[in-house]
Structures are given as structure tokens and as C-alpha cells.
Amino acid sequence: MTELNILFLNDINNEKLLTYFISDDEIKDYFNIHNFNGKKKEILLVPKQYLKDSKDTLLISTTDINNDFDACYLGAIARAKINLNCTITYDTGLVDFSQVDLFTLGMLLSGYKFDKYLNKKNENQKITFDKSIVSSEQEVTRDAIFFVRDLVNTPTLDKTPEFFIDEVKKLIQNDDISLEIHNKEWLENEGFGGVLGVSQGSAKEPYLLVGEYNKSAKFKVSIIGKGVLFDTGGYSLKSPSGMETMKTDMAGAATAWGVIKLAASFKLDIGVKVFTPLVENMVSSTAIRPGDILTMRNKKTIEVLNTDAEGRLIMADALAYASEENPDLLCDVATLTGASYVALGLDIGAVFSNDMSIANNFVDANINGVESYHALPLYKNYKKLVKSDIADLKNTGGRFGGAITAALILEEFVNDVPWIHLDMAGPARSRNNDPLTPTGGTGFGVIGFINFLKTLS
Hints:
Layout: E1 2-9, H1 15-18, H2 24-33, E2 43-46, E3 56-61, H3 68-81, E4 86-91, H4 100-109, E5 127-129, H5 136-153, H6 161-172, E6 177-182, H7 184-190, H8 193-199, E7 207-213, E8 220-225, E9 227-231, H9 240-243, H10 251-265, E10 271-281, E11 292-295, E12 301-304, H11 311-323, E13 329-334, H12 338-344, E14 348-353, H13 356-365, E15 372-375, E16 393-394, H14 402-411, E17 419-423, E18 429-430, E19 440-441, H15 446-454
Parallel strand pairs: 1-3, 1-4, 4-5, 8-10, 8-13, 9-10, 12-16, 13-17, 14-15
Antiparallel strand pairs: 2-3, 6-7, 7-10, 11-12, 14-17, 18-19
Helix pairs in contact: 3-4, 4-5, 5-10, 8-11, 10-15, 11-14, 13-15
């Protein structure tokens, strides 16, 4: 296998650079022919015949790489330039590249392929790394993100609740994470009206999965993940184009399991408990209708005016159930509203909290990070928009401020526990075949949450 050396540089005029090459004039001509000037994110493969050490060398410019995302993305585009089977080594002799670990993570993440359903598989270059380059933390982070991406990308015909459960079992089988599987009968006995209501139009029965790591820890965090395995919109039917990507609507649940996997792998000194309701939102003679009223786990009633605002219904039940244990912090993650990415675009996660210091801590834990977040206000005056005349609440506050009103509904179920809500409807799915995040599930939220949890441990 070819040995490929990656040489990091930030100045093409550095005299030391020329010492790597056999001929100064020849390599300068090579740079000119390939228009390589060492500018930001420029990459050039130099064949071994130009090198004194006879190794193929990939020149990587680290100029103006100022944050974790840039470093990670640089790694992704570097891997995209490699079209040979190789073992990679690094040379940082020309520049002190402090973010080399993020560069490596980008290379690892860019190796993702989802070709399970292709008869002709995509051919991957066989790339291995020198043992000094890749850490176990990077590898387990990659694997957790790939777990999320694979689940998101799996078609719903195969992504049954039972399939999801089996994948979770595989994920946590070597970790100190307990798993409880609660079926429809248990949900009925425990009064999960939101989960049961959303799921009752589907032939597939609902579940609630509960996972726990480090039960004896002093500081305990609960994470609820939205697990709508497919969302037709119910009788408030989505358009055909709007329905095409709704296998993505369980990204929150997958993310929650990816986070607890990393918490256990990194042996964080906090307790983490995950709650993921699994349902399908389908249309049938048994499905809920606009105008129906559901009684939730905490006995509050919700008038369902829009059956396509279903995620908040299952999340509300899970939040109410988790809050009964009074964790030190309650979190949730969901592809909840299109309004969140109307506000922030497709790359930024929306963060809400009943304590702005917690929201700010989450954002600060990811400042200049691989993932981007912005805090939005939990504007109390909008509560009037989700008040119903015939129930305690209604499940939609109308078109404007939709991400805020959805968060306000969830807040009604957290029982005054410190709480943070991540709406990632935009960044959970990539619309472009990007080197770092190819089309489909991105695994967004895994890195953001683990960075935040590290500040708590």
C-alpha cells in the first residue's frame, strides 16, 4: 500500500518548504502549473519523484483556518482529493497546526458511504492512518455519527420500531448502558396519550426506549429524542415533496443514543439517561383527526388542530415522564419545526431553555466548533398563542414564531426542571453532497451535545 505523507504549511515562501524537494526549480514549476499558492484550503498532491524522501505528499494549506469547523472541513476535502489506496502520515514541521485532531476527524467523517441498497457498491479508497494519528475518541465519535446517519438514511419500509431497537442494542452492547423497552400496553397503562395518539394511525405499534449510563452519578442529565420513524403529516397531510425526506424525522432519537454512547465511551462523570418514543404518523381510519383532544402523561390536555405538529406530542409525554425523576438537567433534541431553519438557515441548531444561562452555556461550549448553534428566546407572551378554548393547550400556535411556540408547548411538560431544547430540523439533513456531510443524515447534534456534557462532568 502506498505511503502518503500529509505536509501542513501556511506559507509557500517558507524556505524550509523547498528543503523537502529534490529540485527547487522543478517544484516551483510544478506549483505554477497547478496554480498552487498556499491559500486557504488549497491542496496539492505532489508525486514522490519530486520528494527527497520518495513519498507521495499531499500539501495542505492551513492558512486562515481559525475554527474547528474549518479544520474539520479541511480534512474532509483533503480526503476527497485522495484517489489511491494508502497509509497516511503527518508532517507538521512547517507549521504548528493545533487543530490537527479536528482535521483527522474530518477525514474520518468524509469516509461515510450509504450504499446498502446499491447493487454496485461505491468503491472506497482503502485509507489507513499511522497509529499516532487517530485516537480512540475520534474513532468512537465517527462511529456514533455514522450510527445516526445510517439510521436516518434507512428507508422506513425497513426502519421499523423493531429495527431501530435492534440497532440500538448493537450500538451499546459493549458499554455500561442499560436498556428498557416499553411496549404499547405499558404506554397505555402509564398514560402516554401523546405517543399513543400519534401512533394510532399506523399498523406499527409504538415503543418507548429508555437507556441509562452511570446511574450512581451525582449530576444527572436526561435526554429525550424525537423518534417519528415516518411522518406523513397525518390528516394534515404533507405535500408529496414535503414527504420525501420524512424518514429523517427520527434523527433526534438516533442522536440521543449517539450521545449516550459517547458519554459511556468517554466515561464522563455524569449520569445520562435517554428516552426515545418511537412512532409512525400515518393516515388511516384509526388516525387522530384535527379537533381531537389528547390527555398527556402529566394529565394536561392538548387539542390537536394540526396532525402534522405531532413531534411535540410524543416529546411532551417523554419530557413529563423524565421530569418526574427530577434530573439535574433535562434536554431534548428533535427535528421539530421548519420555522427553526427559516429563522437560522440549514446549518445552525436552534437552542431554547427555561434558563438562558444554560442555553448560553450550550452555545458557548460549541463556539467556533464543528457544529453551530444559536439561542432563540422562549418568549412568554406567545403562550397565549397555544392556549385552547376547550383544552389546556393546542398543538400549534400558528405560522409566525413557530419554533418558539413549539418550544413553549414542550415547556409545559418539564415540571420546572432546568431544561434545554434543541430544534435541529435544518442541520439534521444535508441537501448537498458535501465532502463533510453527504446528502442525507448528518449526525448533527452528537458533537454539540457531547461538548456540552463535557463541561458538566
